[in-house]
Design brief:
The chain has 338 residues and is α/β, with parallel strands linked by helices. The chain has helices spanning 35-42, 61-69, 93-106, 120-151, 157-162, 165-169, 175-202, 210-213, 223-233, 242-248, 273-289, 291-301, 306-327, 333-337; strands spanning 3-9, 13-20, 25-32, 49-55, 74-77, 256-258, 261-264. Strands 3-2-1-4-5 form a five-stranded mixed β-sheet. Strands 6-7 form a two-stranded antiparallel sheet. β1 (3-9) and β2 form a beta hairpin. α11 (273-289) crosses α12 and α12 crosses α13 (306-327). The radius of gyration is 25 Å and the shape is globular. The N and C termini lie far apart (57 Å).
Length: 338
Amino acid sequence: MRTYAGIDLHSSNCYLAVIDEEHRRLFSKRLPNSLDHILSALQPFKEELSGVAVESTYNWYWLVDGLQEKGYRMHLANPSAIRQYEGLKHTDDQWDAFWLAQLLQLGILPQGYIYPKAERPTRDLLRRRLLFVRHRTAHILSLQSMLDRCGGRRLSANKLQQLSPSDAEALFSDTQLGFTARCQVEAIGFLTQQIRSIEKAILPKVKLRPEFVILLTIPGIGKILALTIMLEVGDIGRFAKAGNYASYCRCVKSQKISNAKKKGEGNRKNGNRYLSWAYVEAANFAVRYSPRAKAFHQRKCAKTKKVVAIKALANKLARASFYILRDQCAFDEKRLYG
């Protein structure tokens, strides 16, 4: 008889549950986060085991990779897409583990993509670059706000990044404000140095695959954004339609409509936040360098907020990317903007 396993994974331990085709509970136990302990618990069921469902938490790499290497068929459960019966009064780790196994047995487990192990370090390094970019932007905005608040003047981000620590300190007559500005400019310089060092480490070693080179024909997408998209997408064939891809990129509306009225929002976090950032960045660059993209953005801005207009443009670029990657055709602005 076929069996199915579910693992509710935590930072220091996990809960393993095994059921059969009749939903009978065969095994349940809390185990330490040790591959040897988990393999030992699964060994009696290995011959009949159809698959193992593991919750996609921040620390799933070691467990999924280790079990795959031992021949187990792994399924990465998407926790943001899993819904339980809301009338339940009590749930715990044991219930969650059995719930994963039951969803797997029924064939309705919402699954995440198990990204190839060899490419994960490069992808994670690009994600660290994004983190540094966000921190640098936060320091730039903070310094701009302080200049505007205390001195009634405003400098562009490019000019702020060109300031030396002593020049930044001289912008303020107050000693404490000057020291604050000096610290922020030093932080901006350090983060810029780290961002460039990551780019130097990645660009010579990682090349765009042939099917992703064509992304460079889209206005607003350069080498770094194209690499980010390639490393986050993996295989474009896993998306059935352009709408599925745009939804995965978090570029579609998340709302519940009833009787032509908005009744709330859906699951906004279901998707890839790094792809969402990449296409928003591409949209901002496209507005600068593409007249057609700028005209589309201006029409949207006349009807709604600027941030919504940028997101609408990001949605169009994401959909265009899907067809470009699927059909291997060059970018055509006429087909995108009409």
